[in-house]
Amino acid sequence: MTESSEPASHHQPHVIENRIVYAALSGYIAPGERLGEKELSEIFKVSRTLVREAMIRLQARGIVEVMPRRGWFVIEPTVEEARNTINARRALEVGMLATADHVTPEKIAILREHVRNEQRALEEDDRAQRSYLLGHFHVCLAETIGNPVLGSILQDLTTRTVLIAALYQSTHDAHESCDEHSQIIDALEAGEPMEAVRLMDMHLKHVEKALNYRDVASRMESLKSVLQKGPSL
Amino acid sequence: MTESSEPASHHQPHVIENRIVYAALSGYIAPGERLGEKELSEIFKVSRTLVREAMIRLQARGIVEVMPRRGWFVIEPTVEEARNTINARRALEVGMLATADHVTPEKIAILREHVRNEQRALEEDDRAQRSYLLGHFHVCLAETIGNPVLGSILQDLTTRTVLIAALYQSTHDAHESCDEHSQIIDALEAGEPMEAVRLMDMHLKHVEKALNYRDVASRMESLKSVLQKGPSL
DNA sequence: CAATTATTTCTTGCATACAAGCGAAATGAT
DNA sequence: ATCATTTCGCTTGTATGCAAGAAATAATTG
């Protein structure tokens, strides 16, 4: 964890918020996981008020949701929501690449460096870092060839995508993802934005194809069958 | 105000949030305007807690900002932030049009209806409604040919754009905007998405060109000169 | 024993009380 | 009169207390 992405603000709510996003991106917290206000207030040693503030922000960002008087939960997107999120990313990232002007060598260098970090995480089999970096590549790209506004939008969308991948047990190979990232940079470096667009589109198609949209339903089915088949005690 | 866009949730914080967004889109509240917690709590007859919750959400959406212990204020984007916001819109809307699949006649009808409302607001010289509808067209487009995720992102970006236009005293003619909206629909109906992309790109260029980026600086200058020229009393 | 009902527990929802800090007005010094 | 300093008011920041409600547990009843 050489580089903590703690952006600016040293106030507690933002710290809590960023920690949770980071944890989601790294796979430390799963979709559906409950995030109790009391629990978090003890962890961060602050009152529930500040925890609540962080949760409200995360809710606005579409990363957690609240069930009245039941608690806060990490989102569990439906199949439709999952598709919508990925299609939103497609529109955004395609448009971003298509409208970007010339990419300077310095920017290419930043992106290359990022992919190198991805590769190292792959070699070292650091799964948390791997998950984080593979998601964060898109944020990095948006901030580099786009601007901070695009970056923050993409941060939310990629976080949700990572959660979706966890929920639908994505089988997308990390090495492939990394390669695809690399190829996108190649295209940018070669001054062929339309090729970058094509590659990004394919990349997102691969991400979506790797999802087992059937899984959530089948999870219920298997639970049901287990309960039905069980001994009568 | 035939159609209030109160989405779902009947809880107070969302009501406050939506009212403020609507007021911003309609030009009822201007950039830099102060939104006191106490003031709002009296207007909505709730405690500061709920007002605060709404403000935190609006902050997360980039519509208000807080100055510590001074208060909440409607954003006053800098020139750079303004550019970033519009460029983010460009990426998003261009990508959205480029990746959209065939637009059904029903969807075209919805969009046409919207433009018709714009025209009526123009004829009746209803400035609030005009401002609201011209901004909301893009949200409507995103929801129609895209999905709710795209829609909500674009809602925030267009709200900010309206505030930017107010701050930098946009001279963009409302009739032109309306015409451009209409042409974009034409292109979509004709099954020429790339033409729609081109038109949208131009539309956003017009929006940006119409901004007097010098105004904020010159405002200070004029203030200064007034103070300097004034009689010594 | 099964099914229903009552109770208890644990959660968030909301209001309120007080602390902390910025800014403007009042005060004092030069 | 001008500038520095201090006081004071009004704002948000944070914690806490209590109410409302949902789910789990215990008690009751057929």
Automatic annotation (TrEMBL), chains A, B:
Q: Which InterPro entries does the UniProt entry name for this protein?
A: GntR_C, TF_FadR/GntR_C, Tscrpt_reg_HTH_GntR, WH-like_DNA-bd_sf, WH_DNA-bd_sf
Domain HTH gntR-type, by residue range, is 10-77
Q: In which organism is this protein found?
A: Acetobacter tropicalis
Q: Which Gene3D superfamilies match?
A: GntR ligand-binding domain-like (1.20.120.530), Winged helix-like DNA-binding domain superfamily/Winged helix DNA-binding domain (1.10.10.10)
Q: Name one Pfam family in it.
A: GntR
Q: Which PROSITE patterns match?
A: HTH_GNTR
| CDD domains linked to this entry | WHTH_GntR (cd07377)
Keywords, ordered alphabetically: DNA-binding, Transcription, Transcription regulation
Q: What is this protein called?
A: GntR family transcriptional regulator
